[in-house]
């Protein structure tokens, strides 16, 4: 198998983690009214930072450099997402849904990376990707398990705000 796909996909994964870090950091800063969600987002933010470091180490171990251009693109995309969400009155919901969808995007990428790494004989890279995959799956499961309660909490807060506004 050609390793160019593995190299490109690893660079993409690193950029994806850079995007996730920026997106999670921005979201966590504005969730003070949702302490449980904020705590889990902050936990995953720390995991994401470590994921990026582990990817860099795995890439360096097989002489693959990161792509500054792809990393910048990921960060700019996250900035645009954060800016767009800040303008919405239902930011917590848009952010929760976007985060849930992004976790599944990451899961799919890591599953493909594991296969590519194994096909290229890069068992160390595959192992790093498996470890990261478990964290992404855990975050997606947590978001799934809490999406209904977050929605309910948001709707109650919105109803309370509407009642206060009418007074």
UniProtKB/TrEMBL annotation:
Keywords: Coiled coil. Gene3D superfamilies: 1.20.1260.10. Signal peptide: none annotated. Pfam families: DUF892. It comes from the Bacteria. InterPro entries: DUF892_YciF-like, Ferritin-like, Ferritin-like_SF. Residues 6-58 form a coiled coil. This is Ferritin-like domain-containing protein. The lineage of its organism: Bacteria, Pseudomonadati, Pseudomonadota, Gammaproteobacteria, Oceanospirillales.
